[in-house]
Write the structure tokens for this entry.
Amino acid sequence: MTEITEAPSLVGVHTRLQAVSPGHYEFLFYLATDSRIAFDWRFRGLTPSPDQFSAALWNGVLAQFVVVSAETSQPVGHVAAYNADLRNGTIWMAAAVTPDLRGQGWPLEGMALLVRYLLRGWPIRRVFMEMLSFNDLANSQSIRRIFREEGRLRDYEYFDGRYWDKVMLAADAGDLDVALKRLGLA
Amino acid sequence: MQPERRVIDIGEFNRELAEILQVAVNDLGPHRRFIDDLHADSLQMLEIVALLDATAATVPEDLIHSWETVGDVQHYFTVRRAVM
């Protein structure tokens, strides 16, 4: 008897994921260059040309999505999985949320949907993230219940008059599954 | 997607809320503010929304924007549980 399997869902309670297409570039450019988050995101405050932007958007990417509100269908964030090492089962993940919605939590459901998509689709055993130490998630108690600090480059990047640490966090697949269950997304 | 619902009382809700916020249940006074008093981060806010989704009703975005205190989410839980 053939076992029936389902593709990993890209739909959550508050958000859903849409594969990045050229129609999203304007939103993603805004997200990457908005001064409130630009120095903590991919281009670190640079304003790339449209050609540079679209080329850089796909560097090393395994999968990336625009996070869309389930209620309004408006884009609210961007999640990406990159630098996959499928021989060793590791991957890096990044997420950005529209500055107006930062701190509200629900757009981060998109990050959980990406994790679920990765764990269902590839033999991933460990997920890494890196962030600068002024990011609230770098010091978040709740993220430290899932991710552990695996490295810290001290005084690594300059922003706003001082140097900040770059923090590297890692979570194993089992811990991520537990976190997905807590969010009702297992 | 609709979350699976489970039935809990306000006592259990407060226990789970305290666990998310990593504080004692006694520290969950209704006037305590998530950001200023409890230093809640965005992942904790996501977990609180997921707790309400699963135990009361799917929370509308606009409501989440307006929440400031523990009392706001306790009120939502109590009112929505009453009509379930």
